[in-house]
Specification:
By secondary structure, this protein is an alpha/beta fold. It contains 12 helices and 12 strands. It has helices at residues 17-33, 74-91, 103-111, 143-153, 174-179, 200-208, 223-231, 246-254, 265-272, 286-289, 317-320, 324-340; strands at residues 8-12, 38-44, 59-63, 95-98, 116-120, 133-135, 184-188, 213-216, 237-239, 258-262, 276-280, 297-299. A 6-stranded parallel beta sheet has the order 3-2-1-4-5-6, with helices on both faces. Helix 1 (17-33) runs parallel beside helix 4 (143-153), helix 6 (200-208) packs parallel to helix 7 and helix 6 packs parallel to helix 12 (324-340). The radius of gyration is 21 Å and the shape is globular. The mean pLDDT is 93.
Length: 341
């Protein structure tokens, strides 16, 4: 492919939270490689907070992805898509990069009419038919390194992997700032998939065995889960679930000493911010979606059925076999090592 200096670039990566975080090094590399180009981003409603106000993103295109699934609003969906396709085509993008790799994202990519539309050879749901160029991403490779193969294809040199977040200062209330004073760790007991969730009570048991207070994070819908952690923590945890937006969540994680979590979006935020992660893995593969970097600890059982990538599971054996005492002991050894430095 002949590389030309682009005037406008569109990244299509609507969701999910962790996937968007994984895409930030692509944004950073494009910005450095093509400093005069405008970069736009297609993001799903509910995740725009992770990118709003970003100095590297000229415009966010927020799509109603979940609403499009509702058959009762088919008419409204068709109108939204027509408007979106028309507006995107009017931008005359030079490069469009589809990092999502599904039919819907491929269709959006094609609708731009851009002369260069790039996606992965392994993209699903037939989305490769919408691309002008495909890149071999690979399977057993971390998502961050996989995504960066596309910017490499565009001739960009990847000197370092950076995760540029937008400004987040002053995103928290005075009450939350007071709760976060001093030394603290973060516990993230939720996960988008039920099968990825270690029992909340065990997170609380871990908290009760640590010498540092823990702050339990989550969305509004995770409040009951967070309350279970607090109840089992013997007074060592406090919940702020449902009390921050995405920018506030980043700010909370940024100030933490470490994080204890499932395979989830907050885990990827922590890793991207350089916060040490102690992650519980069950049906997913840490090679592909583990915390990026070498400063982290994975708790996982090598079972014949894992990784299975299932969204639900009847037994949760791979998670149930991980003991709270084991996790707490490992964390405390790391803390002792930090004190000895």
């Amino acid at each position: 492919m002949k590389i030309v200096l682009p005037r406008k670039i569109l990244i299509v990566k609507p969701s999910s939270l962790g996937d968007i975080v994984h895409s930030l090094p692509v944004l950073n590399t494009l910005n450095r490689c093509f400093p005069d180009a405008e970069i736009h981003w297609v993001v799903a409603r509910g995740f725009e907070g992770i990118l709003e106000g970003h100095p590297m993103v000229k415009r966010l295109w927020i799509i109603n992805k979940d609403g499009w699934r509702n058959i009762k609003r088919t008419g409204a969906t068709i109108s939204e898509l027509r408007r979106l396709f028309k507006d995107l085509k009017g931008e005359r993008f030079d490069y469009v990069i589809d990092l999502q790799g599904l039919f819907r994202s491929g269709l959006i990519t094609k609708a731009t009419g851009a002369p260069v539309r790039i996606g992965f050879m392994e993209a699903r749901e037939g989305s490769t038919v919408f691309y002008t160029h495909t890149v071999a991403g690979g399977r057993d490779i971390h998502a961050v390194d996989r995504y960066l193969k596309i910017v490499g294809f565009l001739g960009c040199t990847i000197n370092s992997v950076r995760f540029p977040f937008p400004p987040t200062s002053n995103s928290l209330s005075i009450t939350l700032y007071s709760l976060l004073s001093g030394d603290y760790a973060v516990i993230a007991p939720a996960a988008r998939r039920q099968a990825n969730r270690w029992p909340a009570v065990r997170f609380g048991e871990v908290a009760s065995l640590l010498p540092v207070k823990t702050v339990v994070i989550g969305s509004e819908s995770d409040r009951s889960l967070a309350d279970k952690v607090v109840a089992a923590s013997k007074g060592m945890s406090v919940s702020i679930a449902g009390r921050t937006d995405l920018k506030g969540l980043i700010e909370v994680i940024k100030g933490a000493r470490f994080m204890v979590c499932n395979d989830s979006g907050p885990m990827h935020i922590a890793a991207a911010l350089g916060i040490r992660v102690f992650a519980i893995f069950g049906p997913t593969n840490p090679v592909r979606t583990g915390p990026y970097g070498n400063n982290h600890v994975i708790f996982r059982r090598e079972l014949f059925c894992s990784p299975c990538y299932k969204k639900t599971c009847k037994t949760h054996k791979c998670l149930d076999m991980i003991d709270a005492m084991e996790v707490a002991d490992t964390i405390n050894k790391f803390l002792e090592g930090d004190r000895d430095k």
